[in-house]
Write a structure and sequence with these properties.
The chain is about 85% helix and about 0% strand. It is mainly alpha-helical. It is extended, with a radius of gyration of 21 Å.
Length: about 100
């Protein structure tokens, strides 16, 4: 019974890999992109840590810290990567964000 379920799962995973591998490989998500993402996360996290330390030393409450800066850096890195992969991505991104800013 368990071996039958295992074979069924292996065949399903094989089907998914064969069907979607071409679509996954269309994006040039290679080691350089991963390195850029890691570097941007590290820089954003370091800036956030510095901001947290500054707020702690001056005994103030801060709005954004290490996690927020890391997330903003990640979004910037992914936006730059998507702009290389998808034509006019930044233009569409700014139109969407701008429309949200006008509505709020």
């Amino acid at each position: 019974m368990i071996m039958g379920k295992r074979r069924e799962l292996e065949s399903l995973l094989g089907y998914i890999i064969v069907r979607y591998s071409a679509m996954i490989m269309d994006f040039a998500f290679d080691i350089v992109t991963v390195r850029h993402i890691i570097i941007s996360l590290m820089i954003g996290f370091m800036l956030g840590i510095q901001r947290d330390i500054s707020h702690y030393q001056h005994k103030r409450n801060g709005f954004a810290g290490a996690r927020t800066f890391a997330m903003i850096a990640l979004m910037g890195c992914l936006s730059a990567w998507l702009n290389q992969e998808i034509e006019f991505f930044v233009l569409v991104y700014f139109l969407i964000v701008g429309s949200f800013a006008l509505l709020s």
